[in-house]
């Protein structure tokens, strides 16, 4: 499976990999050495915890490297007046009589609890490329969907605030 990522996503992932290799890895190895020095490893909780932290760091490095290796680089540019990657969109949901604000982001930055909606989510797919005033049907699956109306589109560029999602 290929993830759609921007050049900025790749750069952030590479920075995290470098930080984890140069800083976190050294700290984790030192913690394992120190815990090992405390004696019997079979009953040493500190040793087990240190090993888990070290393994979690190595796993995250492998995960990020695989994401970069299999990524499909996409442009974060969109036409004027259309919903695009990085834009904050206000949508009206008639079924709930509510207005919500979402920022359209790539999968690695998505966090619906913070209003960051992935371009690969049903809502993201439905509104991407649409214009303010468009009424759109969001198909969740074969049996369920809902309507939304795009009220406004704000072109935003503060991508640096959006953190990479942990796994």
Automatic annotation (TrEMBL):
Annotated ranges, domain Transcription elongation factor GreA/GreB C-terminal: 80-154
Q: Which InterPro entries match?
A: GreA/GreB_C_sf, Tscrpt_elong_fac_GreA, Tscrpt_elong_fac_GreA/B, Tscrpt_elong_fac_GreA/B_C, Tscrpt_elong_fac_GreA/B_fam, Tscrpt_elong_fac_GreA/B_N, Tscrpt_elong_fac_GreA/B_N_sf
Q: Name one Pfam family in it.
A: GreA_GreB
Q: Which SUPFAM superfamilies match?
A: FKBP-like (SSF54534), GreA transcript cleavage protein, N-terminal domain (SSF46557)
Transcription elongation factor GreA/GreB N-terminal domain ranges (all copies): 5-73
**Single biological process term from Gene Ontology:** DNA-templated transcription elongation
Its keywords, alphabetically, are:
Coiled coil, DNA-binding, Elongation factor, Protein biosynthesis, Transcription, Transcription regulation
> What stretch or stretches form a coiled coil here?
none
Question: Any idea which GO molecular function terms this record carries?
Answer: DNA binding; RNA polymerase binding; translation elongation factor activity
Q: Which domain of life is it from?
A: Bacteria
By sequence similarity, the record places it as follows:
Belongs to the GreA/GreB family.
Provide the function of this protein: Necessary for efficient RNA polymerase transcription elongation past template-encoded arresting sites. The arresting sites in DNA have the property of trapping a certain fraction of elongating RNA polymerases that pass through, resulting in locked ternary complexes. Cleavage of the nascent transcript by cleavage factors such as GreA or GreB allows the resumption of elongation from the new 3'terminus. GreA releases sequences of 2 to 3 nucleotides.
Q: Which PANTHER family match?
A: TRANSCRIPTION ELONGATION FACTOR GREA
What name does UniProt use for this protein? Transcription elongation factor GreA
Q: Which organism is it from?
A: [Clostridium] clostridioforme CAG:132
């Amino acid at each position: 499976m290929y993830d759609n990522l921007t050049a900025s996503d790749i750069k952030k992932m590479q920075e995290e990999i470098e930080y984890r290799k140069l800083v976190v890895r050294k700290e984790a190895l030192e913690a394992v050495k120190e815990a090992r020095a405390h004696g019997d490893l079979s009953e040493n909780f500190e040793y087990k915890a240190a090993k888990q932290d070290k393994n979690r760091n190595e796993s995250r490095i492998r995960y990020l490297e695989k994401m970069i290796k299999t990524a499909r680089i996409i442009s974060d540019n969109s036409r004027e007046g259309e919903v695009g990657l990085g834009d904050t969109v206000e949508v009206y949901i008639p079924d709930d009589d509510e207005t919500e604000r979402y920022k359209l982001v790539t999968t690695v930055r998505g966090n619906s609890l913070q209003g960051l909606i992935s371009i690969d989510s049903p809502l993201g797919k439905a509104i991407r490329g649409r214009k303010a005033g468009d009424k759109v049907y969001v198909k969740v699956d074969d049996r369920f969907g809902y309507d939304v109306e795009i009220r406004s589109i704000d072109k935003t560029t503060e991508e640096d605030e959006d953190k990479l999602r942990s796994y």
